[in-house]
Amino acid sequence: MAINLVKINSLLSKHIPEQRIYLRSDKTARYVRLSPVIQTVAGTTFALSFCWVVVATVMLAVQAISAKTDTPYLGAWLMQKFTQNGQWEYFRVALALGNAHRMC
Q: How far apart, in whole angstroms, are the C-alpha atoms of residue 37 and residue 5?
């Protein structure tokens, strides 16, 4: 396993150089080495997390927008039920009678 990691690290080092992060305090200075493998894993993790956040946000936005437009209010529900059963004409007459009754 360690040999494979060394090979992968040497192959990646041609494209991704090793980075050092310096941590300074009042009296001392230390550094952390970031090998090409660690940088690749961190970058891939970040990229996948970012893509997941974008996709999840889009899915929630689409769901929220479609919930507002497809609100099952009574008129839409009745129209859907009557059109599914082939009773559109009955529904239209019932609406006309209801409107005429309200006008009186």
A: 8
d(CA 11, CA 15): 8
pTM confidence score: 0.54
For the chain, give the longest Cα–Cα distance.
91
Compute the CA torsion angle 52, 53, 54, 59 (nearest 10 deg). 90
Residue-level pLDDT at 40: 92
Structure tokens at 39: 């940088």
Amino acid identity for residue 37 in this structure: V
Q: In angstroms, rounded to a whole number, what is the distance separating the alpha carbons of residues 5 and 95?
A: 74
The answer to whether the CB of 38 falls within 8 A of the CB of 16 is no
What digits encode the pLDDT tens for the residues 51-64?
999 999 998 888 77
